Amino acid sequence: MLGTLVVGLGRAGTELHLPVLRRLRPDAPVVVFDPHRTARTDGVTVADSLPHAARLIDPANTVVHLCTPPSARVAPLTALAELGFRRVLVEKPLAADDRDLREVLALREAARLDLLPVGQWRASELTRRLASILRERRLGRPRSITIVQSKPRFARTALGDEHPSAFDVEVPHSVLLALLLAGPAEVLGAHCSDMLLGDEVYPALGGAVLRLSHASGVRTEIRTDLTSPIRERKVTIDLDGGTVVGHFAVSAADDHAQLRVSTQGQQLRSVFRDDSLGAFLAHAYRHFAGEDRITDEPDTGAAVVELISAAKRLSGVAVPEGASR
């Protein structure tokens, strides 16, 4: 059985990955390490350094969950590779920008790493149903896709979690979904807004808009508002013969998704369980065991970074100087 090493104990590591791992793989060994935080969960072994972690668990039979911030990917990946870890599940996005991406991919090639970016919506039941509608052309050809991800993010932004911009928070999920549904794309336009909180201004962390043109002819608009009073994860697809609206689960409090299909004179609505992160992590471990490979990665994850990097350039957003890499 493959073991687990979780590197980075922020929200992604402690509130997302570890609870799902405990449910999916209750008997598998788990080691955790974070140089800045102490583990606050039972049932794990805490390492005080990456070399210590490599002594606690066999690197050759371990899946690393790299849950560090986007601007801190290269250094830990290099250290992990030097210690013999080869299977690495990387939190989204794969890198903070295309410069870091080149270093990550060069390290992958040199160290023969099996890199898999986290992409939970690729394992979503809602995504599967949307892709099926598009593939079967029951409603004709798709014309446009609109993806909206909104939530209030004031507290986490004020505390500082090293996300360089709003493009790095929710947009990677949305860009991946757009590529899975409509294929390769290029950036048509983008802009970013600041977050205002009292007398404080948090540059580029209030929200973002990204417009894509796909080689298939579909146009996608992605919008994220991190100052919204409500949570929403919504995708709308306009087709020749109707409109499809999907709502992803917005939090761990309720893992149900909704799908509404509207045609002339008819509207069908369905509600179904959609534990996308659990399904994705289960698939990831099959991938790392060589049983059910996710063959388009890390190419698709790299495409996500390249599109977001292009959007940042159009918006005048850059990785902060001195960011830990």
From TrEMBL:
Membrane spanning residue stretches: none
Pfam family, one: GFO_IDH_MocA
Domain Gfo/Idh/MocA-like oxidoreductase N-terminal: from-to ranges: 4-109
InterPro entries tied to this protein: Gfo/Idh/MocA-like_OxRdtase_N, Gfo/Idh/MocA_Oxidoreductases, NAD(P)-bd_dom_sf
Highest taxon listed in the record's lineage: Bacteria
PANTHER family associated with the record: BILIVERDIN REDUCTASE A
Protein's UniProt name: Predicted dehydrogenase
Organism: Actinokineospora alba
